[in-house]
């Protein structure tokens, strides 16, 4: 058993104990024979854990904001779990290349939140560019999680829906216009998946100035 799978199993135990098993749909949409880019909505700090737990045993390498790597002990733990830092405002070419390497050489799936943070719902550029370089499918995922620790402990059930993959098309020229089309397709997939999970669902991002992270 790898360190990653040990930690995922530990997280699963505590998540199911305190919050229960989430409602998951669309597992049949997951490609079984290749690594992919998991592009998910980001609404709570629990989101990466839900993905890692419910998509296990598929190993996922997550992008995470660089500020949480300032503590050495935590940084070491995160890196052992395939998590790597990124400046969400200005991702460096080096980090993009590392993300592609995780997909192509290290045979890890990539976990990414295209909105950049839970303070926005708009898909930002970057995911499509990684697809262009890695030549991998993008799997959109909508997560409707408990938004607070209180809601988590009150066992507000999380809902997760996995959408149809957005395949890499080798016949297309991945120019700026096509990259924007892919970003729009991700946004549309998020909206459709949210509607399928709960037609009344609405997420209002918190004000960044009131947040600590």
Provide the β-strand percentage band.
5-15%
The profile of the biggest β sheet is: 7 strands, mixed
* Gyration radius from CA atoms, angstroms: 16 Å
Structural class call reads alpha/beta
Order of helices and strands: HEEHEHEHEHEHEH
Name the shape in a single word. globular
Tally of extended strands? Answer: 7
- Total of DSSP H or I helical runs spanning 4+ residues: 7
CATH superfamily: Glycerol-3-phosphate (1)-acyltransferase
Segments where pLDDT lies below 50 for 5+ residues?
none
How many structural domains?
1
In CATH terms, what is the fold-level topology? Glycerol-3-phosphate (1)-acyltransferase
Architecture (CATH level 2) name = 3-Layer(aba) Sandwich
Tell me the strand order in the biggest sheet: 1-7-6-2-5-3-4
Structural write-up:
There is one protein chain. By secondary structure, this protein is of the alpha/beta class. The chain has one domain: Glycerol-3-phosphate (1)-acyltransferase (3-Layer(aba) Sandwich), CATH 3.40.1130.10. The protein has a 7-stranded mixed β-sheet, sandwiched between helices. Strand 3, helix 3 and strand 4 form a beta-alpha-beta unit. Helix 4 packs across helix 5 and helix 5 crosses helix 7. The two termini are 33 Å apart. The model has no long low-confidence stretch (mean pLDDT 93). GO terms for molecular function: 1-acylglycerol-3-phosphate O-acyltransferase activity. Pfam families: Acyltransferase. This is 1-acylglycerol-3-phosphate O-acyltransferase. InterPro entries: Plipid/glycerol_acylTrfase. Keywords: Acyltransferase, Transferase.
């Amino acid at each position: 058993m790898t360190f990653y799978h040990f930690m995922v199993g530990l997280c699963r135990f505590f998540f199911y104990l305190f919050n229960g098993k989430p409602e998951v749909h669309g597992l049949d949409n997951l490609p079984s024979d290749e690594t992919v880019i998991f592009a998910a909505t980001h609404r709570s700090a629990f989101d990466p854990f839900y993905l890692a737990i419910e998509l296990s045993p598929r190993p996922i390498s997550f992008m995470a904001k660089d500020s949480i790597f300032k503590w050495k002990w935590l940084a070491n733990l995160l890196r052992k779990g395939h998590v790597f830092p990124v400046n969400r405002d200005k991702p460096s070419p080096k980090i993009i290349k590392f993300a592609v390497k995780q997909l192509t050489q290290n045979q890890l799936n990539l976990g990414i939140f295209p909105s950049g943070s839970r303070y926005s719902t708009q898909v930002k550029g970057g995911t499509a560019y990684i697809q262009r370089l890695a030549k991998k499918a993008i799997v959109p995922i909508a997560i409707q999680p408990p938004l607070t620790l209180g809601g988590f402990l009150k066992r507000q059930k999380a809902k997760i829906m996995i959408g149809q993959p957005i395949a890499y098309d080798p016949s297309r020229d991945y120019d700026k216009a096509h990259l924007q089309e892919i970003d729009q397709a991700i946004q549309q997939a998020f909206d459709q998946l949210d509607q399928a999970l709960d037609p009344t669902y609405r997420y209002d991002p918190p004000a960044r100035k009131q947040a600590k992270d």
